[in-house]
Amino acid sequence: MSLLHLPPPSPSRLTSLRNSFSVITLNSLRVSSQRCRFNQSRLTLTPTASLTVDSHSPTTSSGRGSTEEGDSPKVLLEVRDLTAVIAESKAQILKGVNLVIREGEIHAIMGKNGSGKSTFSKVLVGHPDYEVTGGSAIFKGENLLDMDPEERSLFGLFMSFQSPIEIPGVSNMDFLNMAYNARMRKLGRKELGPIEFYEVISRKLDVVNMKIDFLNRNVNEGFSGGERKRNEILQLAVLGADLSVLDEIDSGLDVDALQDVAKAVNGLLTPKNSVLMITHYQRLLDYIRPNYIHIMDDGRIVKTGDISIAKVLEKEGYKAISSA
Amino acid sequence: MATVTFSPPFRFSPISSFPSKFRTRTRFIIPPLSSLTPRAALSDPFVLEIAQTLEDSVSTPSPSSLPPPPLQKLRDTSSESILSMSWPTRKDEPFRFIDTSFIKQSRIHPIPIPSPSSDLAGISSDTQFPSLVIVDGHIVPSASQLSGFPDGVYVGSISGISSEAIMEKVLQLVSDFHDGDLFWSLNGIGAPDVTVIFVPAGCQVEKPLHLRFYSREGGEIGSNYMPLSSPRVLVLVEKGGEIGIIEEYSGGDADKCYWANSVIQLALEEEAKIHHSYIQAQTASAAHIKWTFVRQESSSNYELVEISAGGKLSRHNLHVQQVGPDTITELSAFHLSVSDQTQDLHSRLVLDHPRGYSRQLHKSIVAHSSGQAVFDGNIKVNRYAQQTDAGQLTKNLLLEPRATVNVKPNLQIIADDVKCSHGAAISDLEEDQIFYFQARGIDLETTRKALVFAFGSEVVERLPYNSLKKKVQSHVKALLETTSGGAP
Ligand SMILES: Nc1ncnc2c1ncn2[C@@H]1O[C@H](COP(=O)(O)OP(=O)(O)O)[C@@H](O)[C@H]1O
Ligand SMILES: [Mg+2]
């Protein structure tokens, strides 16, 4: 869509702006659900999924861990040599990412602007702007890269967007209801009408400290930066997830909002589910303590360590780290 | 996402290249030359035949019941103007994209006044507002509910006006528009009555008036029999007065064929305010042609929200004339074509005075391979209309291969100190929005349905009454359900 802003024409001259009729006939203006993606040959791993669901959180979690008396917890996500390009320009952004996340762990990825953090999280959830060109991503024993975005979501992977977009004309309430029902359908449970759903949702609003009229507004339309982030976390609270990827959930938040969001995320943590935070700032790590910190640079994870990395970072910047 | 963006060629042309619309006219002496038939000097036999049929249908049997003077004047001037007009063809620019031949090929039969005993059960009464029911162009007082208006407000037949002052004003306004086309004139000949809504100075009418136009007569499809109704309404709001008008059209039997040729005139005096909701929900085989002529005096405020989803052929001619400075005009329209149907809006906003503010939004969804939407939106900012702020935008969503939209947003600016913008977009749904739904586990079909519905919501949400909004929303939803839902 374009808006033409017309310069004021010079005095006493007639400006006739007249475009001829344009006939547009739709031939192939359709959105395909999937772009061509790099297809990983299917792995022989089959999930030993017995659905165990607690009555509050509708996460589609498999009964992982229950069969193994574990030394170390089960691997939840295993990414090997993942490479990806921008679908349109074929410019390579991810240049071989390796990452293993186990159940119950909190990880953080830090790195300079433009190092590929958001790209990595969007590739994990199957964003059509990117094409995977190599490597693998196994989530709960299944090949993530074989799944449609909505399957990934229903399988327990959640990503909060760095910049959640507006959906004019769709109320927050309706959107959450649709997402919730999609999950219920997947679990073979009863879908809820607007009134029953209202019950469910009104309880969750406290989690992110939001007022009820938040639900009547259109999704993210006219929301402040902070409201958008809270809205992402509200969605997470309603849908649940085995792995939540939180892309800069802290940016643009004042301290109060940051505390609210951090509290909400901490409240959702269990020994089974995991969080992957992406952040620039040390301060989020004060509220949500990660077990591991990874530094991303130019499409790769170049260093992994514990919280002490963040300290070095703060003192000496990314240079010190990537050259180490 | 595929977006086609229109960058109109900026053509600078001398004033003289304008058509002859600017010359002065001598009223009634020379029949005005219709803009649509520059070539027609001779009368069109078909047009004369309809005109004759219409004239016969309204002629009074006894001279004792002569029509009130304004109605007589309307009929006379309309009859006169029709002499130079011919039935439009696709060669006439304003009718390039619509096919009126199926009307021409039918036997046109003006619908007489319904007998008082006739069954009006089909007309639902689900409105919470004062309402006036107009069946096939005739007011049905027994089905109307008009209590609760403040003193001095008049709603009803032109024949019922007792105030000479009001009658005089009506006389002035009733044929005060010279840019009408054949259909404007045919309505003027065939209108059995003029429904007059009068709001006196300073009177703010709290509840909106719901005008419920109902088409009951219909011909069997293929029978060649086309009943015609010619409802006509005149709304006059005096200085500082205020009213909401809901103009709603619906029909009875879904598979009947009829033609509604309607006119509404709205005159806003200084500081008057009208919120006009126009809902066109005619049945799928109907022809619906309507004129809306708005005359805005200084500091008046006119807002129109149109939702057109019915009819096989729907044409809305909207003409807004500014006759004083500081006017506010807000026009929004949502058109929906879910079958083999055409939704056409031809609008013209003429700004002749300083500091006018106008916004126009047109949106259409075409969800059928032989469906069509047409928008020709002209905004004319004349020499004295300095500091005008005018914006125009059309957005169109095509959901089927071969679905068609023809849009022509256009601005003509003569004044030099103005702020104007316009734009047009034809698109599919936004890919980023689709992904947001998918990322939350929502399947593609549900997503598309929600987004298609949301596209129209931007306009529907502007309807000022919740009950009406809900009703329209569920109607739109139901219509979209009948299509493949835009499913992949
Ligand atoms: N959809 C896209 N189109 C074009 N360039 C992109 C797109 N997504 C990412 N990029 C580019 O890829 C690089 C990595 O971006 P991003 O993943 O957003 O980095 P980070 O989140 O670490 O700041 C940047 O140079 C960015 O401009
Ligand atoms: Mg980023």
TrEMBL record, chain A:
Could you tell me the Gene Ontology terms of the biological process aspect for this record? iron-sulfur cluster assembly
Q: Which GO terms describe its molecular function?
A: ATP binding; ATP hydrolysis activity
> Can the keyword Cytoplasm be found in this entry's annotation?
no
Instruction: Tell me where in this chain the ABC transporter domain is found.
Output: 77-323
Protein name listed in UniProt: ABC transporter I family member 6, chloroplastic
Supply the InterPro entries for this chain. Answer: AAA+_ATPase, ABC_transporter-like_ATP-bd, ABC_transporter-like_CS, FeS-cluster_ATPase_SufC, P-loop_NTPase
Gene transcribed to yield this protein:
LOC104593738
* Segments of skewed composition (Polar residues): 49-65
Q: Which Pfam families match?
A: ABC_tran (PF00005)
Which organism is the protein's source? Nelumbo nucifera
Q: Keyword annotations for this protein?
A: ATP-binding, Nucleotide-binding
* Gene3D superfamilies, A to Z: P-loop containing nucleotide triphosphate hydrolases (3.40.50.300)
Do the record's keywords include Kinase?
Answer: no
Instruction: Show the segment(s) annotated as Disordered.
Output: 49-72
Q: Name any GO cellular component annotation.
A: chloroplast
Automatic annotation (TrEMBL), chain B:
- Which Gene Ontology cellular-component terms appear in the entry? iron-sulfur cluster assembly complex; plastid
InterPro entries xref list: Fe-S_cluster_assembly_SufBD, SUF_FeS_clus_asmbl_SufBD_core, SUF_FeS_clus_asmbl_SufBD_sf, SUF_FeS_clus_asmbl_SufD, SufBD_N
One GO term (biological process): iron-sulfur cluster assembly
Ranges of residues in domain SUF system FeS cluster assembly SufBD N-terminal: 129-210
Q: Name one Pfam family in it.
A: SUFBD_core
Q: Which SUPFAM superfamilies does the protein's record reference?
A: Stabilizer of iron transporter SufD
Region Disordered: start-end pairs? 57-77
Q: Which domain of life is it from?
A: Eukaryota
What residue stretches are annotated with the SUF system FeS cluster assembly SufBD core domain? 228-455
Which PANTHER family does UniProt cross-reference here?
PROTEIN ABCI7, CHLOROPLASTIC
* UniProt protein name: Protein ABCI7, chloroplastic
Species per Swiss-Prot/TrEMBL record: Nelumbo nucifera (Sacred lotus)
Q: What is the lineage of its organism?
A: Eukaryota, Viridiplantae, Streptophyta, Embryophyta, Tracheophyta
Name of the encoding gene: LOC104598213
